[in-house]
Model the fold of this input.
Amino acid sequence: MTEFILYITGIILLMADFFFVYSGIMALVGIAAILTGLYITLGDIISILYVASGVLLFFCVMGVFLARHITQSRIWKKMVLKNDLNGWNDIDYNSLNYKSYVGKKGISLSVLRPSGKVRVEDTVLDAISEGDYIDKGSTIVVYKSETNYVVVKKISP
Done:
């Protein structure tokens, strides 16, 4: 009866650590309880090592089997997104040509703390301020261009 209580306690501690605590301490205590139950049941260390090795080998084989075959299962196909985002790789960021805005003046459309929107030559751009915050409606100059935004500075009136 003691062995049974140790097995059940060990399994409960393992599951509690896996699902709730995530520390590993309860898992170690659970493993110790299971091994103690095995020792009481089998009586010697060598038998425990055989059983523990067999269980470890079983779980390794099952892990390899699941890793190879789970992607073909119906449950996996229901849980995993099938759409592909290949179209996102076709964007040519150089075609945006933010370099042409360097040195040009504009106005901030939002407060830049440090990022926001600016209008330069009737084009709304994403921007990051160089230095201090820039209030909405301030006159700015484009200081530098990056891949998909510009860096701006406030022009003192």
